[in-house]
């Protein structure tokens, strides 16, 4: 292109004077940028609508559930659930959903098999540890098992979302998170109607609806994206298990520090105060947290392109 410009310095010279092959070369970057922007705009729109509906539904769920079980019951639920957010979720996830997005966007689908193997090994080690800790702290067995089940299903779902983000298709994720949280409110309404007010009801409903959402997104990937995943396996960069472990542990530590910073006050309240204070604080925290989702939406839409 530079050599051609040296011979055509006239102000009236335009792209039309190039041979057809050179015109195509010049137009390729602009077409690629236009396509990338179109994908970003589509993903951002879908993710924004999906997350707004999901956050609003989840906030409504927590308000209804807190009203159902009272501040003490909601505090008991929140203490165990937040403990899972701080310790269990980072240990199970290890940031692997972000790594799946990164490597799938680069055409390396081997990360899917390796990440599920890592998650399986960590889950096998964590399940007996969590059950033993819950028994030592005298946590309700039903509450402990349902919270543990929720986080196990959640980490699987996040990995599936990571695959879709790597393929730059956020529509299934947006649809799934919205529907499963709406379903959670509907199922909780059954327990409200039956006047069943137990702390484990919240985690049971979240577990069941998260499982339903995971089945839905798995079906979408199987039917719609499996061919795209096979086509994407074209990278020359070899991903070994040791490298993925190193990246996962680093990201897992970052996730732990993030959750610890924002949620440790809930645990401290449970230790030094009563479950009622934990319940009141958790309701206020959920009201505040519902507004902090726009940066997450933008990052989810832009991250696959940045990874490439």
Shape: globular
Number of helices: 10
Provide the domain count: 1
Average pLDDT, rounded to a whole number, is 79
Task: Give start-end ranges of low-pLDDT stretches.
Answer: 1-15
Structural class call reads: mainly alpha
| N-to-C span | 26 Å
Radius of gyration: 24 Å
* Percent range of helical residues: over 70%
* SS elements, strand count: 0
Can you summarize the main beta sheet?
A: none
Q: How much β-strand is present in the residues?
A: under 5%
- What is the string of helix and strand elements? HHHHHHHHHH
Pfam families: Polysacc_synt
Main location: membrane
Subcellular location: Cell membrane
Protein name: Polysaccharide biosynthesis protein C-terminal domain-containing protein
Characterization of the model:
By secondary structure, this protein is an all-alpha fold. The protein has one domain (46-307). Helices cover 85% and strands 0% of the residues. It contains ten helices and no strands. Helix 2 (20-93) packs across helix 8 (241-272), helix 5 (141-166) packs parallel to helix 7 and helix 8 (241-272) packs across helix 9. The protein starts with a helix and ends with a helix. Mean pLDDT is 79; it is low at 1-15. It is found in: Cell membrane. The chain crosses the membrane at residues 44-65, 77-97, 118-136, 142-163, 175-194, 200-223, 244-264, 284-306. This is Polysaccharide biosynthesis protein C-terminal domain-containing protein. It is a multi-pass membrane protein. One of its GO terms (cellular component) is plasma membrane.
């Amino acid at each position: 292109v530079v050599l051609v410009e040296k011979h055509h310095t006239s102000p009236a010279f335009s792209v039309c004077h190039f041979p057809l092959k050179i015109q195509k070369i010049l137009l390729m970057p602009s077409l690629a940028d236009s396509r990338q922007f179109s994908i970003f705009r589509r993903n951002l729109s879908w993710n924004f609508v999906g997350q707004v509906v999901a956050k609003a539904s989840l906030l409504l769920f927590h308000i209804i559930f807190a009203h159902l079980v009272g501040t003490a019951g909601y505090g008991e639920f929140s203490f165990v659930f937040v403990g899972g957010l701080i310790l269990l979720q980072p240990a199970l996830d290890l940031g692997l959903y972000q790594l799946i997005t990164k490597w799938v966007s680069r055409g390396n689908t081997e990360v899917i098999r390796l990440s599920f193997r890592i998650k399986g090994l960590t889950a096998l080690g964590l399940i007996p540890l969590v059950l033993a800790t819950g028994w030592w702290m005298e946590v309700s067995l039903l509450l402990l098992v349902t919270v543990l089940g929720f986080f196990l299903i959640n980490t699987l779902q996040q990995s599936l979302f990571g695959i879709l983000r790597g393929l730059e298709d956020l529509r299934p994720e947006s649809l799934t998170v919205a529907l499963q949280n709406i379903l959670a409110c509907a199922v909780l309404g059954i327990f409200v109607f039956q006047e069943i007010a137990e702390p484990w009801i919240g985690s049971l409903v979240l577990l069941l609806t998260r499982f339903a959402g995971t089945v839905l997104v798995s079906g979408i990937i199987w039917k719609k994206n499996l061919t795209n995943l096979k086509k994407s396996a074209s990278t020359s960069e070899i991903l070994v298990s040791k490298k993925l472990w190193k990246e996962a542990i680093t990201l897992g530590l970052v996730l732990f520090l993030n959750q610890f910073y924002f949620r440790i006050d809930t645990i401290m309240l449970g230790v030094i105060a009563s479950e009622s204070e934990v319940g009141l604080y958790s309701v206020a925290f959920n009201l505040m947290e519902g507004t902090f989702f726009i940066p997450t939406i933008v990052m989810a839409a832009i991250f696959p392109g940045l990874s490439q």
